[in-house]
Amino acid sequence: MKQKVIFVGIVILLLLIVSTCTRQSNFPVLKGPYLGQKPPGMIPEVFAPGVVSAEDQEHSSLAFSPDGKEMWWSLWRLPHDLDKYPQVIMYITCENNTWSKPRVAPFSGKYRDGGPAFSPDGRCIYFYSRRPLQPNTEAMHDNDIWYVERNENGWSQPVNLGKPVNTPFVEATPCLAANGNLYFTSDRNRYDDPTGNNDLFISEFKNGSFSEPKGLGYPINTSSARESFPYIAPDERYIIFSKDNRKFDSDGNTIQGDRKLMISFKDENGLWKNPIDMGPYYEKARFPSVSPDGKYLFFTKFTEETSEDFYWVDANIIEELKSMALK
Q1: Taking residues 313-318, what's their average pLDDT?
Q2: Across the strands, what pairs with 171?
């Protein structure tokens, strides 16, 4: 019986190896900017289908390096089994105008990691994780923001951003403006503030460190919805985020959500205008980001119960929405 079990295990392992080798050998040759994909128009299209957007995965937070030669993202393998297949950060690089095959980031793969975002100079990658604060200890039960720094060997070991940004509550989906200001999602106010069940925060970068975070306040953060997954424009003139309107049962439990992408612009006084709904193409969407050259808006969208793909669209849609928002 024992020999039979061992034999079956060997067969399964061989099948996995063959499957992996087949995928690798079938990986297409990708040349040119943005993996050589045909640029989209004003209607969102799936980005890199079968290459990055795969049927058996959920995706999040696509980020290009400032020079456009690296692409980072995170994914969950489906069906969900986070103990066996944690959320993992992936990347590909472009050398001699040709893109490599996707690889797991050298600092990811063991714990739940997600939401990679580059610092303005491309020297650091910020991400959220549930990895333990100390080696050989238990993983955390909420997300903190971490970062790695580029060095002569590739990337440093992950560093927890620490206080005042991280707390015993959730901090996730970091995004940085050109001046280094950090925007992120947190539920740190959920017991003290009626708008605190997932709000957006800013931690200003001053004298080489991050300041005490402040909620973006109304009209961005509201008591009737969860605001999360921010993308901040490099000059902080607009913010795109996911808003999940909640409905409750008689006991106050969430029974239904209506997630969509929203966008808000600053007025002439530097105050946030009322966010506007980006439209039907941006329903069931999250994790927005704009390419470093400002040409394309990326986001993820649920198209089926078992799939969440990357989409991209001409970033001129932002200027069209601006004319509507500032009327």
Answers
A1: 97
A2: 186
Q: What is the pLDDT of residue 18?
A: 42
Diameter of the chain measured on Cα atoms: 76
Look at the block and give the residue holding tokens 């808000």. Answer: 264
Which ranges constitute the DSSP H helices of the chain?
Answer: 2-25, 316-325
Q: Indicate whether 4 belongs to any domain.
A: no
Contacts of 280 (CB under 8 A, 6+ apart): none
Predicted TM-score (pTM) of the model is 0.87
Instruction: Pull the structure tokens for residue 92.
Output: 């590909």
Number of domains in the chain: 1
Q: Which pLDDT belongs to residue 264? A: 97
309, two tokens: 């793909």
Whole-number average pLDDT of the chain: 86
User: What pLDDT shows up at residue 195?
Assistant: 56
| CATH code of the domain covering residue 265 | 2.120.10.30
Peptide bond into 106 cis (omega under 30): no
**What is the rounded distance in angstroms from the CA atom of residue 18 to the CA atom of residue 180?**
45
Residue 228's Cα: distance from chain center in Å? 10
Whole-number Å distance between alpha carbons of 160 and 129? 9
